[in-house]
Amino acid sequence: MSNTGKDNKSAYNSNIYDEHIVNVLPYYTEYHGQAIDLVRTLGIKAPKWLDTGAGTGTLAIRALEVLPDAKFTLADPSEKMLDIAKQKLADKDIEYLALASGELDIKGEYDVVSAIQSHHYYSIEEREEAVKRCYDALKESGVFITFENIRMSTEESDDIALNRWKIFLKEHGNSDEDIQMQMDRRGVETHPITIEQHLEMLKKAGFKSVNLLWASYLQAGFWAVK
């Protein structure tokens, strides 16, 4: 969703974000579906759920269709994104925080914390801090769900995955210039790490159970229990 790095608050035009993102990230809607299915499996009828890097509120909209009694807090550093979320969720009782993950200061309040496509703008040190703050915001036995851009385990496999993504981008209407822009951002503006690094980072934050949820192309989802 929206980025959570302070320097990237305007990286995307918030007015076209929803329609654009599905043409940039393969299976983007599956990220939300996987997160919602996992939370539903927890069996909590009215989970208190913090979605950080919430963007325009798409995850909350979909989740509330399945879990209508869920209590959502949406956090994002972009007030423009949150303004759109407020319009989309005008009939819902939602709390909004104009904060990035790394700025959260919440202790033990939530059953679920999610961060969907929002931490890869951080450096390793900043990302570790953001994950730790998400951990702190959870109740004991609460679940953290995150989806992020990833890097393959070797340069050779990373090149193959990048070429696969380029084909997806081309087939979904992106210009050669737009595709090159995406390639140029990687490792400069965005900082993807491997699946193994993600799992280790979650362990370092203190989670007692750390798991891979889903993976495809250059994205992966993880879930971890406090």
Would you spell out the secondary-structure blueprint of this structure?
Layout: H1 17-21, H2 28-42, E1 48-52, H3 58-66, E2 71-75, H4 79-88, E3 95-97, E4 110-116, H5 124-137, E5 138-149, H6 155-171, H7 176-185, H8 195-205, E6 209-216, E7 219-225
Parallel strand pairs: 1-2, 1-4, 2-3, 4-5
Antiparallel strand pairs: 5-7, 6-7
Q: Could you give a short description of this structure?
A:
The protein has 226 residues and is of the alpha/beta class. The chain is 40% helix and 21% strand. Helix 5 (124-137) links the parallel strand 4 (110-116) and strand 5 (138-149).
Structural features, described:
There is one protein chain. This protein is an alpha/beta fold and 226 residues long. Helices cover 40% and strands 21% of the residues. It is built from 8 helices and 7 strands; from the N terminus they run ααβαβαββαβαααββ. It has helices spanning 17-21, 28-42, 58-66, 79-88, 124-137, 155-171, 176-185, 195-205; strands at residues 48-52, 71-75, 95-97, 110-116, 138-149, 209-216, 219-225. A 7-stranded mixed beta sheet has the order 3-2-1-4-5-7-6, sandwiched between helices. Strand 4 (110-116), helix 5 and strand 5 form a beta-alpha-beta unit. Helix 2 (28-42) packs across helix 3 (58-66). The longest helix is centred in the last third of the chain and has 17 residues, at 155-171. It starts with 16 loop residues before the first helix and ends with a strand. The relative contact order is 0.16.
